[in-house]
Design goal:
Length: about 500
Amino acid sequence: MLYSTETYRVERTTSTGNMDKFCEAICAFANDLPDSRQKGYLIIGAHDNGTLSGLKVDDALMKTISAIRSDGNILPLPVMTVERFEFPEGDLLVAEVSPSLLPPVRYRGRVFVRIGPRRDIASEAEERLLTERRTAYMATFDATPCLGAALDDLNMDYIRKEYLPSVIDADILADDKRDLKEQLASIRLYDRTHDCPTYAAIILFGKNPRYYLPGAYVQFVRFAGKAIGGEVLNEKRFQGSLSQMLPALESFVSDAVITQRPVPVSLFREKTVINYPNNALRELMMNACMHRDYQSNMPVRLYQFDDHIEIMNAGGLYGEARPENFPMVNDYRNPIVAEAMKEMKYVNMFNQGVRRVQDMLKENGNKEAVFDVSKLTAFAVNVYSTIDDSLDVPQDGTQGGTQGGTQGNNVDIQKNTNGTQGGTQDVTQGEKLDIWIEEQIRKNPNITTEELSKKAKKGINTIKRHISKLTHIKYVGSGYSGHWEIVDGNIKK
């Protein structure tokens, strides 16, 4: 480079004090108008013919040239290094400048480019070309190369047998004679420049994504009570590639989180109530995995409480989506991951997820989900249950809920059946509850099991189970028009 003619990559000078000239040269190298993707060199201490000028490079000159990078006159800041080379004929000071990934680069508001060996101000067309290149360079995180990874880090059997046939027409795939790297590169799962998979490939099909992305997992916690701080009743971690994790997560939500129970409509008729619609939770969990910020070490959180579920993922609203237009406007932080999840039938990418979730919740009898879009670095949603699970959890001292141990469920009993004074007693266990139920029926023969359940703060099935043991108490009539009768010996009361 020293003895070749000056090109768009090399500029030589003997000057040591013309800072504008140095800055303009660095700006032009950073813009890399020919898009060579090669570094440019400013060589100080050499004549145009390559001979050395006899310059002696001291620390002051080194600091002066190095300071160009961060003095704020060249924006965006260039990527450059400065090094001194010593020869018998004199020293050279070389500034090596990398092409910017965020062109156009400006020096004091003006864009400089190299036109062959000459440096000049960019024309309007050249500046527009650099602006377009900036957009092309700004790849999303999932499209960037996962340096250090290789094909061995991917589940290649799944990719060959399941994924590629689902995204590429069978006839085209059969005629495609390219090697696997080329095929994956065509769907942005492989980076040919760096010869490694992209982060999207690791997220979707990696054997151990957490080796490269420590936060790539889902954390489930079941808390006792209605807020964080209650006792942890269950905990589970879902990890691995999305192709492995999503089916397991889907099954877990369906089998362990979704519950149903009979709720009486009348004395002899019941209906089945589901705490959360399965498809609504599925939609929210899939969106959390699709839109999350995979550069964060925070996992996707699925926290279940007695009366609601909280789902939170790293990364707030992205791109065009903002609090004032959510959920009408959508954007994708991980477009390659989103496209793959669509091909695997986990999401639809029609921007209808939030509306569909709210419709499903309404149909099931739940309140609308509450989306928190105020956080800059996280996205959260709270889904409220149709069933308060704290009502039927045994009060044996292990349940936190909104009440601790056996406290809080006391009901006043004036007298027991033997006529002794009971005062305020705990009716949550065994015979005490039997006595209390009989006392309530004596006071009000028309009382319903629903009213007994509310007064005792016990599940309605618990009340029915205790009444069935009281063989001397019978219900006469049907529905709400009937009443209770207590048989003491041969006397009905």
